[in-house]
Amino acid sequence: MKMLSLPTEPRQAALAGAGIASPRNAGEAMRNPIATASANSPVLSFSRTEFSNTTGASRISMLAGSSFGNWNLTAGMESLNYDEMQRYSEDGLTVDGSVFTAGTIATQLGIARNFNSMSAGITARFANQNIDDSHMQGFLLDGGVKYNLLKHLEFGAVFNNLGWISYDAKEIAPLFVQAGITANCALPLGFSGSLSADLYKRNDSAEELRTGLEVIYGEQFSLRLGYYEVLSAGFAVKFGSIAVEYAYQNKEALEANHVFGVNLHF
Q: Which domain holds residue 131?
C-alpha cells in the first residue's frame, strides 16, 4: 500500500515531490487533491513509472478530469505490479517451479472548486492489494486547500490516505501530510520561473524538506529540477492539445527510475 504515497506524475517526480501548492495539470490529482481544481476543460492523463531491475515492478495510472458548472471532477485508476517471485519453503529452500505474484490497484474520485483566491478539493480512494493469496482493502481520503497569498506567492496543504485498511495481515495506511509554498516570477525572453519548498511527513518516516525549481516558456515547454537527498529532473513539451512529460529519479531504496506521462486536452 505504500505505493499510494509515491509521486505518480512526471512533474511531481521531477520536483522531488515538491510543488504541492502549484499543481499545473489535473493528472497530479492522483496525489494532490488540489489539482482537481485545474481540470477546467476535459483532460485525459496517462503516466507510467519504470522502476530499476532491482525493484522488478512497473506502475501505470490514468485519470480523466473536467469541469461541471462551478465544480471540477476527476476519476482515476492506478496499478502497481511486480514480476513473478520465487516461492520458498518454511526452511528457506526454493520450491522448484513455484512462483507467486503481488500488486496493488486503486481507483479514486475527486471533486474541487475554486473560490477566488482559494481552492479546495477532496478525493475518495479504494485500494486493493494482493500478495500471493493474501488480500487487503483500503478506504482512504485525500483533502487539501490552496491560497494565493500574494500575486506571486502560493501556499498549499494536503493530507493523503486518511482512512482504514481491512486485512488478514497487519498493515498501516501510508498517511502523510504535506505543506508547501511556491514563489513565481517573470524571467527574460518570455520565460517564467517557480521555486517550491515543501515539508512532508509520513506516519512511518521522518520529516522531509523537498525543494523544486521549474522554468517555463509559455505553455509549450518547462524544465524541472528537484532535490531531496538526491537530485531529480524532468521536462514537459506541449504540441497543440498534447503534452508529453518525463522525469528521472534516483532514490537509494529504489535506485534509478523513469516516469513518463501524456496529457490530452480537449
A: 2-85+98-265
Distance, CA of 30 to CA of 45 (rounded, Å): 10
Burial class (CB in 10 A: 0-12, 13-18, 19+), 119: buried
Phi and psi at residue 163, to the nearest 5°: 160, -145
Question: What CATH number corresponds to the domain at position 241?
Answer: 2.40.160.40
- 208-249 tens-digit pLDDT: 999 999 999 988 999 999 999 889 999 999 998 999 999 998
Residue 132 contacts residue 102 (beta carbons within 8 Å): yes
- The model carries a pTM of 0.89
Q: Is residue 93 part of a domain?
A: no
Backbone angles phi, psi at 4, to 5 degrees: -75, 0
The domain total for the chain is 1
